[in-house]
Amino acid sequence: MRLLTLSLIALLFFSCHSKTEEQENATPKNPEKAFPLFIKNLDPNRKLSAAMERSFKHYEAPRQLDNELYSNFRYTELDGFNYNDGDGTITRRDPSKIIFENGKYYVWYTYRNTPTRPMGYAKCNDTIPSADWDLCDIWYATSTDGFTWEEQGVAIPRPAKPNPGWRSVSTTDVLKWKDKYYLYYQAFSAPSGKPSNGGGSDVCPVAMSYADSPDGPWKPLNKVVIDFGAEDEWDHRVIHDPYPLIHDGKIYVYYKSGMDSRDANRKHWDGWGVAIAESPNGPYIKHPLNPVMNSGHETILFPYKEGVAAIVTTDGIEHYTIQYAKDWVNFEIASVGKMLPVAAGPFSPDAFTDSKNADGITWGLSHFINAGNNWNKMYTKLARFDCDLSQKINDPSM
Ligand code: AAL
């Protein structure tokens, strides 16, 4: 299994590299070389096909290769994490966004260390996990270069029953607000994956813990901060992947829900909503236009210029796209990508600066799932991704 994982990562790494070289050769070093004849002969009155019309108008770039929200992704294995030789008993997944504090990078993630692999809902008990994210705690690691990580141990343990999250705490993300730190996370009060019509029925709203330092100690609020929608609402059963950013002096927490339906490929039909608060404890008011995204299994976002950009990786009719919402709510497709990072947590320097000209991202952590032939036996590894989704850094090797 380990070999398989390594080869998968190596394959991705090298395929990215070869694509990268191709792209480098194809990338014009000066504008005149792009689509030379086409551009040169472009008479403003010339009629364009729909495809070319989109290229010029919708993607807001004179040429596709100028689109700053288009990138390849390169993946690298991380040093510093042990996975029990991939026997499925240890998992690390769903990394938070990465922050830089006290001279080092910090990341938080879902950590499972159980006597067995996940066995599915029917076979789970107090020690056997139903799913890869069942019976988990939130751990953290630090790094000075983003490649070699030092695991620091638990940040948020499962609280005592009946507090939200007593069964599992997972899929966290971090907020820095007025010199304090907040971790928002999925708080399971039952094993994940109870079979029901159409898919997941996780008893899983959002809880939060706070600390004066990224090293903790973390104090749990021990209450739900973003709850399910009403019975007839799209987010009535699941609030996953809370992802806080600061915009206009407020806290915008994007989240994923909508697992009642399936898309055309019978994958989850996920959507994202946003809930907005004036302070970290809430109250969080859900935006009236929710859901604001029609695809994407995990929330991955970063401030970009005056708006927010989103990486929509798996699931849904607009998966494998990078999208942009100038007003932080109405997303448009900016580019279609390939091998986008799964469940990524980017290093997003402007996540909390409330900048009106945010720079974007160039790297982060994502995860690779090792499920074999049976998703119940999965475990997951963290990996690094590099990309060029930044206004400033325009690295031609990417
Ligand atoms: C993910 C996330 C959430 C789900 C599961 C674990 O990657 O969308 O966290 O609950 O899968």
Quick tags:
single chain, 398 residues, 3 helices, 34% strand, globular, binds 3,6-anhydro-alpha-L-galactopyranose
Q: What is the structure about, briefly put?
A:
By secondary structure, this protein is mainly beta. It is 10% helix and 34% strand.
Task: Explain the layout of strands and helices.
Blueprint: H1 2-26, H2 36-40, H3 50-58, E1 74-77, E2 90-93, E3 99-101, E4 104-113, E5 137-143, E6 150-156, E7 168-177, E8 180-188, E9 206-211, E10 219-220, E11 240-247, E12 250-257, E13 271-277, E14 285-286, E15 301-305, E16 307-312, E17 321-325, E18 332-336, E19 345-346, E20 358-370, E21 379-390
Antiparallel strand pairs: 1-21, 2-4, 3-4, 4-5, 5-6, 7-8, 8-9, 9-10, 11-12, 12-13, 13-14, 15-16, 15-20, 16-17, 17-18, 19-20, 20-21
The structure holds 3,6-anhydro-alpha-L-galactopyranose (AAL).
3,6-anhydro-alpha-L-galactopyranose (AAL) binds at residues 94, 133, 170-171, 186, 240-241, 256, 297-298, 343.
Anisotropy-based shape: globular
Following the backbone from N to C, one meets helices and strands in this order, namely HHHEEEEEEEEEEEEEEEEEEEEE
Which ligands are bound?
3,6-anhydro-alpha-L-galactopyranose
What is the straight-line distance between the termini?
Answer: 30 Å
